[in-house]
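Thread: Modeling a multi-component assembly for a lab meeting

Hi all, long-time lurker, first post. My supervisor asked me to bring a structural picture of a complex we are working on to next week's group meeting, and I have zero experience with this. I have the sequence lines for every component (506 residues in total). Could someone generate the structure of the whole assembly? Inputs are pasted exactly as I received them:
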Amino acid sequence: MKNDIDNLLARYFGGIASELEMQEMEDWISTSPDHQKHFDELTSLYAKLGIADEEIPRPHTKMAKEKVMAYISAHRESSLKQIVPIKRIPFYKSRIFQAASIALFFVLSFSFWKFVLSDREMILATQMNSKQKVLSDQTQINLSENSKIIYRSTFAKNNKVIQLEGEANFNVGHLGKGSLQVVASETFIDDIGTVFEVTAYPDSNYVSVKVSKGLVHFYTKSNAGLKISAGETGIYYKQSKIFKVLAQKLDSLETGSMHVDFQAIVLRDALDIISNAYKVNIKTSDKSIENRRITVNFDGEDVNIVLQIIAETLDLRLEKGSNGYLLSNKKSK
Amino acid sequence: MVYEQLFDSVYEPLCRYAYSILRDMDEAEDVVQKVFCKLWDQRETLSIQSSIKSYLYRIVHNDSINVVHQQINHKEHNFKYSSGLHDSEESVSDHIAVSELQQAIVNALETLPPQCRKVFELSRMEQLSYSEIASQLNISTNTVENHISKALKLLRIELKEFLLVCLLIQILK
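Re: Modeling a multi-component assembly
Sure thing. I ran the full set together rather than chain by chain. Output:
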């Protein structure tokens, strides 16, 4: 305890004591006259150590007193209640007028509360086109087609939580209270000063977070997850409930190629990523195939090569049709 | 007028205390006056467990430290410290007391371990923050706090008698 109070005093004199620590110090001082004396001695010592080699100028006490007393007088007067003479009005009119005013006041207040102040759900949804939105904390959201975000009308007043279904790019603003948190399916993405993109379609087997700038914390309620840095993509596989960071950036939309390292990943999850990256339809003839795991890496090959490699690795047959690709067991034919 | 009596009894000591941090009496008076105004504003909601004087010293201390840290650069602050542009109406006895105290402080500081003394001087004389000291000396802020804590303990013991004498001189004046 002694060491604690000594360090607490050191923090106080250094100007870095928190409010809680100040309260602890206050409590310690008040418990004993010896503590009060100890504190007073240190205060005196602290002052003398700073100015011992100087002659101290005298303050302008009289002028200061006039200033402070004038402040007190001014604030004392403004707090006094004023007595306003009540006008004599006809009794009949007065009662009805007051009742009507009160009723109107409640109606207006309720309306104002309902439509302006109350905490209600805000939804932004897209279908064929993307949409842009700037939230009250200056966070810029680029919502892709067929996507939806939900947030509260009190966003940035107490916290900053956005639910996402689909895909959106976030350029995080920092006004208001709290840090941004995106809830995507069962995952949470906490902003630590970033620009990032989240993909979380409801019928997809994964949630991905691609970070352009800064850092995010990507996790679920039961899994501490990962921190994803700029240039990395984090994937959460819903089926296996694991997180992975892809070795290199999942850049597919612009170049139509993949640079990726799959490590013992469930095939269904891998096919989802490839399908999304290359915008192709990939099916399997047998659901049991999808549960198999694959370890393989790609470095910019086109989709035909990628799927051929997967088929070879898992001893599967690959067929290409008008509707996309089909992977099947070689024995089934 | 309890408030007025309080003002009369603590205004000057508080200004001197603030001056020891700010090295500028105008700024010190500004801080102390604002503290008194804040005290008035909060008079109905304030709950002080220790003495009111002690409370005021703490508020003045925190506000003064904040002012120092808000200043543009330490050169501006240290310039005021070293330029010594001020009026002085101290008596001869005060001057002698200051010189003796000065010597006592020098002697007391010499009893501190070297690193502890270095940290303490950077904090108290040059008004560096703990994080600045930690950065300059390549140590953690926890270590800085420990050094300051140790320095205050040792100096309080070394200078206890001298502080008591100074206090008595103040009371008798």
